[in-house]
Design a protein that fits this description.
The protein is of the alpha+beta class. The chain has 2 domains: 199 residues, Cation efflux protein transmembrane domain (Alpha-lytic protease prodomain-like, Up-down Bundle), CATH 1.20.1510; 86 residues, Alpha-Beta Plaits (2-Layer Sandwich), CATH 3.30.70.1350. It contains 8 helices and 4 strands; from the N terminus they run αααααααββαββ. The protein has a 4-stranded mixed beta sheet with strand order 3-2-1-4, covered by helices on one side. Its main location: membrane. It is found in: Cell membrane. One of its GO terms (cellular component) is plasma membrane. Pfam families: Cation_efflux, ZT_dimer.
Length: 301
């Protein structure tokens, strides 16, 4: 079992445990705000299952129907997560509206808050692990799940603080108002998850800082070449696809050009996680004024 799959499986278990704790907190208090927190945990479980399936599919090797691999399965999972987050926010708004029309006092608030705090602590520990591993493994599914849990932790803290205020002031209308604020926070987070994932599906280029690093690596490892041009990059799940044209002297033998390309590919793969490099070699007759000359000083490609 890969590390990514193991953490995705762990998210399912943690999600189920947190869901049970939060619903228990709602049952003992009758708080709409705590109900909103519990409803987001339903999304956590659903998206954890989707992420588990996605990372397993994404790990499959290329086949005849998917020659470039299955990496975008993780992006589809992240989009599904964003949609479910938005749906959870809408359900929270509905519950809050009902509670506003018929506010009720809370029962056993101390026990409910203790259960919710325990659930929030588990989410805090796990979201930090997910973000760390998601970044290390370049996994959009784990990273999206981690950001979602971070949002859940923030909303849980706000909900707990709000319920404490309800208990101290006796103002029952505050309970559904807190639920509405939690729903707005969840809705905003869901929009960001969808936006970032759609960018990946649309073959968005890598961030500018990563592009600068790619250019520097090519420049530092392309001694013997004359120029690079038409550099293109894109993300697909954990993979980073890098394509460019490499102009070499016309007298260079095929085996020498091949060795030069291997050196550049090795350098990129050593620094860029899961890099997939394609180099189109051209003779010096294809030299372009718009291209970037290769210099030992590490000029940009």
């Amino acid at each position: 079992m890969s590390r990514t799959v193991a953490y995705a499986l762990g998210s399912v278990g943690i999600g189920l445990l947190v869901l049970a704790l939060k619903f228990a907190a709602y049952q003992v208090t009758g708080s709409t705000a705590l109900l909103s927190d519990a409803m987001e945990s339903i999304v956590n479980v659903a998206t954890a299952i989707a992420a588990l399936i996605a990372v397993q599919v994404a790990a499959r090797p290329p086949d005849s129907n998917h020659p470039f691999g299955h990496h975008k399965a993780e992006l589809l999972s992240a989009i599904l997560e964003g949609v479910l987050i938005v749906l959870a926010a809408l359900l929270i708004f509905r519950s809050a509206a009902i509670a506003l029309m018929d506010p009720r006092p809370l029962t056993a608030p101390v026990a409910g808050l203790a259960l919710n705090a325990l659930a929030g602590a588990l989410n805090w520990i796990w979201y930090r692990q997910l973000l760390r591993v998601g970044r290390q493994e370049c996994s959009p599914a784990l990273t999206a799940d981690g950001y979602h849990l971070r949002s859940d932790v923030v909303s849980s803290l706000a909900v707990i603080a709000g319920v404490v205020l309800v208990v101290l002031t006796g103002w029952t209308m505050l309970d559904p108002l807190i639920a509405i604020l939690a729903g707005i926070n969840i809705l905003w987070h869901g929009w960001h998850v969808i936006r970032d994932s759609v960018g990946g599906l649309m073959d968005e280029a890598v961030p500018e800082e990563t592009l600068a690093e790619i250019r520097a690596i090519i420049a530092a490892s392309a001694a013997g070449a004359m120029q690079t041009h038409d550099l293109r990059t894109r993300h697909a799940g954990s993979a980073t696809f890098i394509e460019f044209h490499l102009v070499v002297p016309g007298h260079l033998r095929v085996d020498e050009a091949h060795a030069l390309c291997d050196r550049i590919e090795d350098a990129l793969e050593a620094r860029i996680a899961d890099a997939r490099v394609t180099i189109h070699v051209e003779p010096d007759s294809e030299f372009k004024r718009s291209g970037a000359p290769v210099r030992a000083s590490g000029a940009k490609a």
